[in-house]
Sequence to fold (385 residues):
Amino acid sequence: MSHQRSILLVTNDLGPRAGGIETFILGLIDQLVIAHRAGGQIVILTSTQPGSEKFDQDLMARTGVVVIRDRAKVLLPSPRVNRVAARIAREYGCTTVWFGAAMPLAWMAGHLKRAGVKNLLAITHGHEVWWSKLPVFRQIFKQSTKSLSHLTYLGEFTRSAMQGAVSKNCTMVQIAPGIPIDHFVPSQKSKELVAQYDLAGKKVVVCVGRLVHRKGQDKLIEAWPEVLESHPDAVLLLVGIGPREKFLRNQVATRGLSRQVRFVGRVAYNELPQYFSLGDLFAMPSRSRLAGLEVEGLGIVYLEASSSGIPVLAGRSGGAPDAVLQGITGEVVDGTDVKKIAALTSRMLSEPERLREMGAAGRVWAVEKWSWQIWGDKFAQLLGL
Ligand code: GDD
Fold:
């Protein structure tokens, strides 16, 4: 196999753990594999995670990439990891190195450049926003971008938040997560799931996301008694797992909402579209935290919902509004304001015809603007493929 166009990906976010960055990186790998068919190798240096053996075998069998797990649980830009990455780049003849999340790994860029790597680029998500704002971290961020040819951003919000901290040598390019529009397709509600969760004839609001503060499942639960006043049959389905689960379950129990709020847990990727399709509305009122340092970078789930033909209620946090056409594919709400969340949810549920229109518009927008083909082609070009 030719090593001429071999690429090394250095990342902490690969799987088996699931989250937005992992979804994004795996999607980009798939796109590169398609663009890369003529030859060359994609090598991935990543950290150790429980259960990774089977995940790696499947990934390698499916895509032909090589996965190398470092012994570290979190890959940090230490001198040892610098040496490991430089050795792998040499061994596989990788002239391009791609960092799956810019910070902190792109701090390695200077070392790898001196070790002979010609082309270095990094992807940003949401957390680079705080790196670009806090003193000291901002300096590290800027220094890291000096050796990068390109730094990617998700949308207008993250671009403008970071740009002042990016070195002039480094070009900013938008690379957003594409959506697998053939996977997330509009479909009827699954009869089995409707029966399983007792949803027949009920209005269903679905939320898919890690159970963490920022995603705002707590505010949805707080808003639910008020939603029930105008829609006594409304059910909230929470898909996902996370550290806030116990807190959220307590919230539901103390409000006596166990019949109206259901915890689905983690759902396999193949089954996820069926869960989006159960919703008359997708709601995740994300909120910024830590004085605006922790924000939503974009919110892939809003776009997965749109691609599934489901209208969206998003939170006004960071780049989340970039994932909604307000008043067309959905609405945006202040995720700290329970009254507004309740009012908007109730109003949207009262207008089924309008919800259908928004869902249909979301599907069109996802296909035209967010398909993997669009972002995958752009990323492959950036890597010179
Ligand atoms: N299979 C499965 N099962 N997937 C899930 C589950 C589940 O139970 N829960 C969440 N996911 C998937 C969603 O389908 C989506 O693809 C991803 O995990 C979540 O992505 P985001 O909505 O974007 O949120 P994030 O906070 O994990 O991601 C961060 O990085 C993204 C990419 O840069 C945030 O900064 C996002 O705003 C950003 O879009």
